């Protein structure tokens, strides 16, 4: 999907919501366990219930890999089920030496046909660039993550006084453009958000950490939105596990609707 198409979808749906499909057998409602493919059945009903409120879906690949070969099949079925006008994110956090990254890129972009994949910057340019050679596909580079452990390395101050995450952002500007690269910035990082937005005014930011991790949609939106939208805000558990009963899809729709309605207010203010 092109930058422009994504931006158009955001304004068409008045939403920059990304629904995280972190679907696990021990978390989905028990009545689904009798289905042939319980996770696919769960995903299908979540997608049907939330599609009017979301522009993107993000299966976290770990939840599918954990199931072995059948998990990959479930993932493929889920991606095939999603309408073509939604943006799909393989949250896989990959990156390796060049020829290996090339294979990861083929797996997610050609075989599974995702629009984008999350990539770790740690191994440097040759580990990221192979992902950037695919037409209309995106790298979403981990810059400043939402978890506590982000303190271990990402805030490390370099000799020039800048934190490591800032170097990741600055240096990676030479690898791709705002039309094929996004950055992961956690919703729990609102203190750093304004400065990051200044560094990369045009790039889309994938923002996880709203909902279960306590990030504020209001603060992130006020700082992060740009004239093209510029944000994809993810919520996984807060939406998909809103209820563990038979009404789970209805409850997910309700959570997604609440977020979308709030997003509409911020988009209307642009
Ligand atoms: O910095 C990061 C990067 C990725 N994630 C992923 O996003 C979702 C968040 O799930 P919630 O249930 O909404 O907390 C999950 O797949 C993480 O692996 C992140 O949280 N932070």
TrEMBL record:
Active-site residues annotated for this sequence: 93
Keywords for the protein's UniProt record, in alphabetical order: Decarboxylase, Lyase, Pyrimidine biosynthesis
Keyword NAD: no
Catalytic activity, EC: 4.1.1.23
UniProt key word Lyase: yes
Residues in Orotidine 5'-phosphate decarboxylase domain copies: 16-252
Annotated NCBIfam families: pyrF_sub2 (TIGR02127)
Protein family: Belongs to the OMP decarboxylase family. Type 2 subfamily.
UniProt name for this protein: Orotidine 5'-phosphate decarboxylase
Encoding gene (name): pyrF
